[in-house]
Amino acid sequence: MMSSSPAALSSSISGFSPQALARPLALAVVLSGVILIARAWRTPFLARIGLRNALRRRLRSGLIVSGLMLATMFVASALTLDDTIARAIQNVAVFSLGRVDEEVAGGQGPLGLFDQASTDAARKVVQADGRVSGVAPAIALPNLLLEDENTRQVRGDVLGVAVDPATAGPLADLRAVADNHSLAITALGDRQLYINQDTAKLLNAHTGDTLAVFSSAWPGQRYRFVVLDVVSGGPLAVRPSLLLSLPSLQQLLNIPSQINRVYVANAGDGLSGVGYSQAIAAELRAVLPPALRVSTVKADGVAFAVQAQDVFGRILALYTLFALAIGLLLIFLIFALLAAERRTELGMARAAGMHRSEVIWMLLFEGAAYDVAAAAPGLLAGLALGILTVALVSPTVAQLGLPLQLDIEPGSVVVAFCLGLLFTLATIVLAVGAVSRFTVAAALRGLPEPPPPAPPLHQLLARAFASLRPPSDPRRAARAWSLLAWALSARGPVPLVAGIWLLNHFVTAQSVLLMSLAVSLVVAGVGLLLRALFLALVTGRLRRALGDGALARAARLRRRTDRITALGIGVALALYWSLPFDTLQHIGLPRAGGGITDFFAASVMMVFGAVLALAPNLDVLLAPFQWLSHRLGRPRHVAYIALVYPSQQRFRTAVGLAMFSLVCFTMVVMACIAASTTQRYANFTAQSGGYDVIGQPLFKPAGGVAAVAAALQQAGPSRSRDVAAIASAAPLPLIMIQPAARAARWAVYPAAAIGGAFLDGTGLPLVARSPEFASDADVWRALRDQPGTAVIDVGALSPGDLAALGLDAPAPVGIQQFVAPPIASGLLGFSALESLVGRTAALDAQNRIPRDVRDILTHPSLLAQYTLQLQGVATRPGQIAPTIMWIADPRGGPPEPVRVIGVVDNSADQSYGLLASAQTFAPLESGLDAFAGEYYFFKLRPGADVRADALALGSALLNDGFETTVVQDALLDVNGPAVFASRVLVGLVGLTLLVGMAALAVTGTRAVVERRQQIGMLRALGYQRADVRHMFVLEAVFVAGLGVAIGLGLGLVLCRNVFAVSFFEQFQTGIVLVVPWGALAAICATAVLAALVAAFLPAHQAGAVLPAEALRYE
Amino acid sequence: LPLLAGLLAAGCALSAAPSTPRLAARVLDATPTASPTAPPLSTAPLTVVAIGASDAFGIGTDQPRTDNWPTVLAGRLSSAAHLVNLGIPGATVALAQRDELPVALAAQPDVIAIFLGINDLDQGVALAAFEQQLTALLQALRGGTLARIYVANLPDLTLLPYFAKDDPLTLEEQVSAWNAAITRICTAQGVALVDLHAAWSELANHPNYVSADGLHPSTAGARRIAAAFVAAIESGAP
């Protein structure tokens, strides 16, 4: 996905590369234009007729242009969003990493120090390089602990930086946050520092505040500094940081002329320099002492950020493919309608001596005129729609503090424009080619197209070989051979042989997509072959038995066979492509990769299969409705006509149905994915368990919930007024075993002693409990009152138990869950403790754990092997058998049994652990040091100012060194870009709804406008205006309803398959399928409503026209 | 009574297995390539407790969850075996007494397989202390369960790369002394000795028994240890 070139950096995340596509597409547009102009030059009368048609009927042309516009608009908006997301994600990385592109580190001792002079040569080399704009010797001091003496706030894990500004260039370019004025590093005195905005926000610090700085580099010391200003830029990134004067820090650490970093800033805007990061790093490595290492920090960060959001890129790619498919169908439908409307006129032209190729060119000129008229406005509308979507999601994104800016790459604009033009032109060629094949007499008389002649195969063979004999006529030969090829395709052998050949090829290529295509061809081939054989057999018998009278029966038989064949092939295709992607694995074939192309191919083929099965058999589907309509009074005529029309105009109905289905399908799929990602990343209430603030005492243990509540009360009633509940949790490093498991053994799993509101179940909803407890409250009561009872989260259950409870597995546990509290686990770490007591002391707590257990906790592959999996726990949904487990702290103390009586929900991947009261764990922990500190969770009353209260809590509990964090901020720090991308996906659903409905409205309106003459005829026959209106409304309801049903059903099948194949798991996202039934109902209702409105308004107008006028209408 | 009935059933099931010497010979002969997929000796329910260290935990094997020696052993003993594998990485006899014994007693096993001592020796535990602790462990197990107990002695540690830094003669003497003590305790406590030292003498020709860390048994090594236990169990001792 990432490449080192700047161009690649700004390319899309969906995998399409607009820059690479722009040139060939532009060339193709020019070539198409040249061909069209050359032909118009040669046959100007065809161009004139085509263009005249385009200009003559304004309303109709307007509708056509609108439809074509929508197609271009869809593509353009998809590309705009793609660009914006790609840029936003890259910006997030750059924003988070600051101006440092490369970093030299790797010296001696705990601080990794090295002599500044040892890097002189390297610094000179890169300074001379035009691609470098700044080099700065520096000291980076991680894990500082700050106490703001003015605001009484504490914050750990702050990065301290000191740089030499002499040759730092942009690394010394500091700006005051307040008014953006430039600030100098040299202005810093011995006991002064700059802080960045994040530090200022977390400490509520201002210029002039006094900060006490603790560090493991000066254990036991408390150095005071004054904040000179709140700044941005320079070496400071987005994480909490502060900037000191380098000489002062060297003096403080007593390390004159020693540094532990050299920072390099590349030329450019902070992002473009990433492109040559590797080259600069290589230059540095060549001259640096071997002990020092060079990291391309920003390039790595950007690559990581883009990779982390890869899943959204894939989803966007899928959306873009859907957009293209819908656009294609829309254009095809518009031109199929156009050609059908013109059938009589074209028949006349053919009767007057015009060749079929000339008819095609005439329609092409007309189509090209619409195309050109639609491309530019479509592009602009698409860009506007993309901008609108970004604008709609930006308020939410603003909460994340992300630097979201609209970004439209010129390449994308060119691609959208050219793609719109070419796509439309190619579809027009296809549509025109298909509809220009008609029988002149039938077209002139307005009769249905008779079935094409189907001479026996031996005749076609004979003709084909005869055409090769001299004197040979190449045109005749080509026609004879193409007829033969067509006959062989339509009768099955060609698709069958192609399918078998592809299957063989698949064996070597191992491509599941290719295999599925081959299977589809074989299905189609077998179906067509059976049809041909059956018809040959039965028709021959009929002829022999009944002579000439058999023709009519044979025709009827043929129609029925065609319908059954279409039904068989369609159902088989829809079923095959609906199979879960991993089904193939069960029969020994390779597992489908579950890539975007697989999903897209499956989607298109499912819709195609369903439409192929249904469209020729609509009359059968309609039979119950027609039966019902016969029982109505007068409305039965209306119902009859309304239902007969779509079943007679099968091709048009099929294309319309396919488009309608695909629009609904896309909306259903995108709505489900958006709901699933939103649930995963943006469901803050579930993730935070309803708690608003997390507090961690860094100076000394706070003594439990009661002590914290008392301290708050003592600090003043105003402090505790907003606090609705307080909970506590202290992580413990336990090993555990379930002796009743078939192959029981010691395993590891996160555990925490919980107290306060947690023991009331606040924030820890249960999904199953032991049957001895009548309610969840009873479970929590037992946990409080009966030492030796515990609950555990869903993540500890074996797959069999998960299935029995009907639950999904959360993301696997990692080391972060072992050292962090049960709520918002993984967000807070050990570093704050480290900053206070020093790295060595902090790690001592961990070091007492046996080495092998420590290895297991810190190596993900080992951890996966040794993670607890409770077996045979679940009895039925919502119920577990009380389960005895033995638990032990490997740091000492004998094991103790605990009884697991409930299972905690972990659908938000934030509530891991075996949880019990402190009394339950007391026998294990007796005489042992605290493992990873304690955490307190505060739930505030509705309407409380969370940030102000977080600061107030920190201030009130300053004696314990209480670091308070707003839970939502912590969650956003981790999931910010994903939340943003989830919001965009929701925006995309809206976008699809908007464009899809507009497309349906355009085609619906077109369908009515074209049937003005028919309306006139019905009116002349005695149909009332209301009848006409009802007729169109009923027809629209039927087609729309069927399309919605197909789209909804198949969309849900695809979603199920996407999640079944663990598409999201490969990105370790922990996303599980959420079906937003409410949103889906709204989508379906809106789709049907849009179709109704689209049909009703023109029908109302058409009904108002006088019959004579309507009959004369061209 | 139920415990006695269970033990009898397990005993009967084991004694109902094919003729002992032939089977034992087959197990031992096949050990270098012993397969965990070999048919179990019995289909009767059987609770097996394994008391051990990181080797029982599966460290060093390809699939720690399934390739550790207690799992292979339980699978070979009965298709309906219920294994409680109490191996803890780094476990000494003292740690096993503290952390593994309570769970072992609660599990009320039919068979107990013990393989400890390497960590004690490596960590410099005095032989006298080791003897005292092992005796106490076995006494507690005998007093608290009706299980048949099998204790493995130490393999030839001079063949393990991890101990290459040690003087081989001294190490060999140490191993001999410790194994003599284990034998004495087993005899005194009336529990069966699994002579891993003899069974692993082929280690010199099978470097694949040891994992890449030079200490823990590999998947093949774990199978060999399990086979040694199976052979002892099949021999009918004690």
Q: Brief overview, please?
A:
The complex is a heterodimer of chains A (1114) and B (238). Helices cover 58% and strands 13% of the residues of chain A.
Describe this structure in words.
The complex is a heterodimer of chains A (1114) and B (238). With 1114 residues, chain A is an alpha+beta fold. Chain A is 58% helix and 13% strand. In chain A, strand 22 (874-876) and strand 23 form a beta hairpin. In chain A, helix 4 (58-97) crosses helix 9 (297-308). Chain B has 238 residues and is α/β, with parallel strands linked by helices. In chain B, 51% of the residues lie in helices and 11% in strands. Chain B is built from eleven helices and five strands. Chain B has helices spanning 2-15, 20-30, 54-57, 64-67, 69-77, 93-107, 118-122, 127-144, 168-189, 196-199, 219-234, and strands spanning 46-52, 81-85, 111-115, 148-152, 192-194. A five-stranded parallel beta sheet of chain B has the order 2-1-3-4-5, sandwiched between helices. The two termini of chain B are 22 Å apart. The model of chain B is unreliable at 1-34 (pLDDT under 50). Classes of the chains: A alpha+beta (1114), B alpha/beta (238). The A-B interface holds A 735, 737, 739, 742-746, 850-853, 856, 862, 865-866, 886, 888, 890, 893-895, 897 and B 54, 57-59, 63-66, 68, 70-71, 74, 82-90, 98-99, 102-103, 106-107.
